[in-house]
């Protein structure tokens, strides 16, 4: 059994990861906020990363650093860098001092900006298009400095989706927003004419990517997507199919112009070759799982009604269990 610290453990990905670690029998400590997901763990710390009482943590075997300001509309560079870089560096320093030798942290494919897809680690230029992306690129630089003393693995999350996003409001994934909107009988609002494509990865697969990163014997940074793409129009067709609806999209103008990413896709060959990680849930299957998770218990009213408000985000809780007999857990 390992002693695990999951920052952002009440958030979307963090809560899924914390529950998976608990199911595997590990001791789990999280940082988080009680207004997000309710997670049963051994200990929860509510202060921000800069306010943690380190006497409550002591020795940690592995850190899964998921906490971040992931608001891509934030233009305050100092605020973003403090939350995503300075606080992360402090976290790494304190945990390293306490003897931690394994760090897995959340980066983002947002760092590629508007570079052509598919994104390939080490080949596609890092070209952040907003302050959030800049902070993640800087975090990777800071994290690399710690790889001299510990195993440090970054995962560049693509568009993560799945059950338990309702607390995120307008920052929830496009898939979740569409499902919640359409389940209420509302026509989905899409940018003209729905041909934009995204690489989506189910949160259950992202959890497994984190476990694979923990098992990795070295340091590095890896893409974390499905490697596949789907158009917004196709998402609407699938949701109509799963929910037994026939809702036609309402087309609206895209206000973001040339800055908008019309196509995102991760090359996942390196992650599979070195981490042994291969996403198992197809996008269509994941949409079905997410429909079942949200619609069966009822739609949470906190989800915003306009799915088209999703910008070119690479966002980061209850995951649907997936059988992965080919992988061994730490």
Structural account:
32% of the residues lie in helices and 16% in strands. 49% of the residues are buried. It is globular. Helix 1 (12-23) crosses helix 5 (203-215). It has helices spanning 12-23, 77-97, 131-146, 174-183, 203-215, 232-243, 269-275, 283-295; strands spanning 3-7, 27-31, 43-45, 62-65, 102-108, 151-157, 159-161, 189-191, 197-198, 200-202, 220-224, 230-231, 250-252. It has a single domain, classed as Rossmann fold (3-Layer(aba) Sandwich). By secondary structure, it is of the alpha/beta class. Strand 5, helix 3 and strand 6 (151-157) form a beta-alpha-beta unit. The protein has a seven-stranded parallel sheet, sandwiched between helices.
Low-confidence stretches: 299-329
Outline type: globular
Q: From the 3D coordinates, which CATH architecture would you assign? A: 3-Layer(aba) Sandwich
- How many DSSP-defined strands? 13
Could you say what the CATH topology is called?
Rossmann fold
> Strand arrangement, largest sheet?
3-2-1-4-5-6-11
Q: Approximately how much helix is present in the residues? A: 25-40%
Q: Would you identify the CATH H-level superfamily?
A: NAD(P)-binding Rossmann-like Domain
SSE class:
alpha/beta
Q: In total, how many domains does the architecture comprise?
A: 1
User: Whole-Å distance between the termini?
Assistant: 9 Å
Number of helical regions: 8
Oligomer: single chain
Mean pLDDT: 87
Task: Kindly provide the radius of gyration, computed on alpha-carbon positions and rounded to a whole number of angstroms.
Answer: 19 Å
**H/E series, N to C?**
EHEEEHEHEEHEEEHEEHEHH
**Main sheet record:** 7 strands, parallel
Please report which band the strand proportion falls in: under 5%, 5-15%, 15-25%, 25-35%, 35-45% or over 45%: 15-25%
């Amino acid at each position: 059994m390992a002693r695990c610290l999951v920052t952002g453990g009440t958030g979307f990905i963090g809560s899924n990861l914390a529950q998976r670690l608990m199911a595997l029998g590990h001791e789990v400590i999280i940082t988080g906020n009680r207004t997000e997901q309710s997670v049963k763990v051994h200990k929860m710390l509510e202060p921000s990363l800069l306010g943690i009482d380190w006497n409550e943590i002591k020795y940690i075997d592995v850190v899964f650093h998921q906490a971040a300001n992931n608001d891509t509309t934030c233009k305050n560079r100092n605020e973003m860098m403090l939350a995503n870089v300075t606080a992360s560096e402090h976290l790494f320093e304190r945990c390293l001092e306490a003897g931690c030798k394994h760090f897995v942290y959340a980066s983002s494919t947002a760092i590629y900006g508007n570079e052509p897809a598919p994104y390939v680690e080490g080949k596609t230029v890092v070209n952040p298009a907003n302050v959030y992306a800049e902070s993640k690129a800087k975090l990777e630089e800071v994290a690399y400095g710690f790889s001299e003393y510990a195993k440090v693995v970054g995962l560049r999350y693509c568009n993560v989706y799945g059950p338990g996003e309702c607390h995120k409001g307008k920052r929830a994934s496009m898939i979740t927003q569409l499902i919640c909107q359409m389940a209420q009988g509302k026509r989905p609002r899409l940018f003209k004419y729905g041909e934009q494509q995204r690489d989506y990865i189910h949160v259950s697969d992202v959890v497994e990517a984190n476990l694979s990163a923990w098992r990795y014997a070295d340091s590095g940074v890896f893409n974390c997507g499905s490697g596949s793409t789907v158009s917004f129009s196709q998402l609407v067709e699938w949701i109509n199919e799963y929910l037994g609806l026939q809702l036609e999209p309402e087309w609206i103008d895209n206000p973001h112009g040339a800055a908008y990413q019309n196509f995102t896709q991760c090359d996942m060959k390196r992650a599979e070759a070195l981490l042994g990680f291969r996403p198992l849930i197809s996008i269509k299957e994941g949409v079905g799982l997410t429909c079942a998770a949200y619609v069966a218990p009822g739609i949470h009213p906190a989800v915003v009604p306009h799915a088209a408000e999703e910008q070119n985000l690479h966002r980061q809780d209850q995951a649907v269990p997936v059988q992965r007999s080919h992988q061994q857990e730490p």
